[in-house]
Amino acid sequence: MEKKTIIQDKNLIAYCGLYCGACRSYLKGSCPGCHDNTRASWCKIRSCNIEHSYSSCADCHEFSDPKECPKFNNFFSKFFALIFRSDRPACIGKIKELGYEGFAAYMAENELQSIRRN
Residue 14: is it exposed, middle or buried by C-beta count within 10 angstroms (0-12/13-18/19+)? Predict the structure, then answer.
């Protein structure tokens, strides 16, 4: 199977703000991306966004800061952030700043799956 290239596609923005379009698993063809990954029913963030018909946590009206949301700011996300030096709240902030198309362009241009934690 030929490896995919990183492209700009707002549909490849995960519910939590990661950019699936630059993820190794997605690029290798072993993951369909967050929105199409029906096996990810375990993800509380994904379930919440689907339940509320959000494209991502950037659309949430209950929590203006995703760090305040217990579904977003859980043990798994903290562990993921530590291991991968990922700053998903910064990704959500960037979506709010640039919009979905702008965020996808920024992430694809910089070949980022996530904004790096300082």
Answer: buried
